[in-house]
Amino acid sequence: MAGLSVFVTVGTTHFDALIRAVVDEGTLAALQHKGYSKVTLQIGHGKFTPPEGEHQGVALSCFRLKPSVAEDFAAADLVVSHAGAGSCLEALQAGKPLVAVVNNTLMNNHQIELAEELANSGYCFFCYPETLQETIGKLDLSQLKPYAPGQPRLLAEYLDDVIRVGS
Fold it and tell me: What is the pTM of this model?
């Protein structure tokens, strides 16, 4: 039986803490325990290049950037993404279970608000790099609600809150 696959994306940024958290032996063991046997990492402009090949029973491969990652989203059974709006919505619109990982080192970071809103609405799980292993270990995808593509209400409300100028 072929195992499940994970697509990890940092978008066009760098988020080495997320990539390091994913390839941590404990996280890989947790993924393998959940039935995942392949992890594809899109590492953007990060300085850290993860090891490729078999680790903890999980096959790792990586790339930096390419014109479209739509095929990577489509092929994934689970998406682990930085909590950027574009990547989160692409995963949800592709109908993929999502773990949104917040980069809490960013200044004026609105990722936490988006990740919390999506998680509170039941569309994804969210965590930080340092809690990814625990989040994967407790992952129960049956708790997620399907995201209805073409209904951008959630993002629109979020953006209204974030960019509202003292009206």
Answer: 0.88
